[in-house]
Design a protein that fits this description.
The structure holds two protein chains of two kinds.
Chain A: H1 3-29, E1 53-58, E2 67-73, E3 81-87, E4 91-102, E5 116-123, E6 127-130, E7 140-146, E8 151-157, H2 161-166
Antiparallel strand pairs in A: 1-2, 2-3, 3-6, 4-5, 4-7, 7-8
Chain B: H1 12-39, H2 45-73, H3 78-81, H4 84-107, H5 114-120, H6 134-149, H7 153-159, H8 161-168, H9 170-184, H10 193-222, E1 233-237, E2 246-251, E3 254-261, E4 264-269, E5 283-285, E6 288-290, E7 297-298, E8 315-316, E9 318-321, E10 324-327, E11 341-342
Antiparallel strand pairs in B: 1-10, 2-3, 3-4, 4-8, 4-11, 5-6, 6-7, 9-10
Helix pairs in contact in B: 1-2, 2-4, 2-10, 4-6, 6-9, 7-8
Classes of the chains: A alpha+beta, B alpha+beta.
Chain lengths: 170, 345
């Protein structure tokens, strides 16, 4: 290169050597923590100590999703049921809502009209969700639905209500 | 023109260079997508492609920016410089794919023109963590486009090497914009420290290499040479110049390459007419000064390329007295024949 261009090159590098590390450090330092999903309202949030009887557990209920599913009962035989979902890997979906739906949940993009919203799931957080009373009397499925993407992400059929309401501990 | 007077076209070295480049890019994208699908099974194909193209372009840009200073520090890296423009164009294509897929994925489904959405979708310029990082990437892409579009020798010839070089120094502005684009964009939502650490290492690598090369480059420009009454300056001892190589000195405001060959000394401008490469770092091959960058050749006696080529560089009057080399700082017009100084006369 000719001398004026060498000088210009040196000046550019000198400026970048000061500005870029500063910008890099400032950018990393200003990072916000990733917002967590707000807690679900107490009315539909089951208290874990109430549900001490494990009556069902399975790891491969969700197809491609690595989620451990457990169903707990408050008493034996149960008067209330709760389902625990524990993602083993980060769920990369925003605004993930959890529904329980009576019967086969079908394959529609959105949950059935009569499905019950039972909570929200986020990242790798373990969630315990109170199942509605009909879960003791009818077979049902749990549905994961992304509100942001407006689509059903996955569906898992729970064991039949006779097994669950029988409350036979595993 | 190259060493054997062949036009710089699709020679074997270029084919090997480009084959390695394409294979490397394909391999990287394949590995990235495959591993991404395994470790992030919920990620969509579009997301993996956006990330793959983006990281491939960023990695390639670091390689491109490393080649220049590495060649200044060690001539063994010169083969990498030979076809660097193809790396640049490939990098632009990868960046374009990254930008294109991102616009489709994040901006194409609204009721606003996607480009308007990129530029006006976020306006929190006073917040670092919420800074609109996408316009930074778009600005960098425009610079890369300008560079890719003018990368051919047609533009090099028509713009002249100094203008072309000055234009292509915009790559540093693009690099700064891209680093900010990543730091204020992807890294703001990234929980793993690995990506931030990788970018930090890459940034430090590029800057340190350039600072080391700049330090080495500055030394010849700082040395001054005593002038005699007839205007000639005492540059060096003949013994300091290796046979068929050059001693480079800043004389009269620009670098001069003083070659020793076959018992003779000749001095020509250090600046190659092709891309302003450093002729003094080349060697004399088949009796011709050969540029280390792309093999352009000049006769040491008159600074002219042999027929049929037309390139010419300025020559300098030179004499040898008492084992010392004296050069007149006034350049002769390009292509002017100058009688070489005989060593030992």
């Amino acid at each position: 290169m000719i001398r004026p261009l060498r000088r210009r090159h040196r000046r550019i590098i000198s400026v970048l050597a000061v500005l870029l590390p500063l910008a890099f450090i400032a950018g990393i330092a200003s990072r916000k923590s990733i917002p967590a999903m707000a807690e679900i309202p107490p009315a539909i949030r089951p208290a874990a100590p109430e549900f001490t009887h494990l009556i069902f557990e399975q790891n491969d209920l969700w197809g491609q999703f690595d989620i451990t599913t457990r169903v707990y009962a408050d008493t034996l035989p149960p008067s209330r049921l709760a389902v625990e979902l524990h993602p083993q890997r980060y769920l990369e979906y925003p605004d993930l809502l959890v529904y329980w739906s009576a019967g086969a949940a079908g394959a529609a993009k959105i949950p059935p009209q009569e499905a019950f919203l039972i909570g929200v799931l986020s990242g790798r957080e373990k969630g315990l969700f109170l199942l509605p009373a009909p879960a003791l009397e009818t077979d049902g499925s749990v549905i994961l639905y992304s509100l942001a993407q407006q689509q059903r992400i996955a569906t898992a059929a729970l064991p039949s209500h006779s097994i669950l309401s029988g409350g036979n501990p595993r | 023109m190259s060493l054997k007077y062949q036009a710089v076209m699709w020679n074997r070295q270029k084919k090997i260079y480009d084959s390695v480049l394409i294979a490397g890019v394909v391999l990287y994208l394949g590995l990235f997508s495959g591993l991404g699908a395994i470790f992030h099974p919920n990620a969509t194909a579009e997301t993996l492609l956006i990330r793959g193209f983006g990281t491939a372009a960023l990695l390639l840009l670091h390689i491109i920016l490393s080649i220049g200073p590495l060649c200044r520090l060690n001539p063994r890296f010169l083969p990498l410089l030979y076809n660097r423009r193809h790396l640049g164009v490939t990098m632009f294509i990868l960046a374009l794919a990254h930008g294109g897929f991102s616009i489709v994925q994040f901006h194409a489904l609204g009721d606003v023109n996607p480009l308007v959405s990129v530029l006006a979708g976020e306006t929190r310029y006073t917040s670092l963590s919420d800074f609109p990082f996408q316009p930074l990437g778009l600005a960098a892409l425009l610079i890369l486009f300008l560079m890719a579009a003018t990368s051919h020798d047609f533009w090099l010839t028509n713009l002249t090497p100094p203008v072309w070089k000055a234009l292509h120094m915009l790559v540093y502005v693009a690099y700064g914009l891209i680093v900010l684009h990543v730091v204020l964009g992807a890294l703001q939502a990234e929980t793993s420290p690995v990506l931030a650490a990788l970018l930090g290492v890459g940034l430090a690598w590029v800057l340190i290499l350039h600072l080391l090369a700049a330090r080495k480059e500055k030394l010849p420009d700082e040395k001054t040479y005593p002038a005699a009454a007839d205007g000639y300056v005492n540059v060096c001892a003949v013994s300091e110049i290796p046979e068929k190589c050059a001693h480079v000195a800043l004389i009269g405001g620009e670098r001069v390459a003083i070659f020793k060959y076959d018992g003779k000394i000749s001095a020509i401008s250090n600046v190659c007419q092709h891309q302003n490469g450093p002729l003094g770092e080349g060697r004399i091959i088949d009796g011709l000064v050969t540029c280390p960058w792309h093999g352009f050749q000049y006769r040491p006696q008159d600074g002219a390329s042999p027929e049929p080529f037309k390139e010419k560089v300025p020559t300098f009057n030179v004499k040898v007295i008492g084992g010392r080399v004296w050069v007149h700082p006034q350049p002769n017009p390009p292509g002017t024949a100058v009688e070489p100084a005989r060593i030992g006369e």
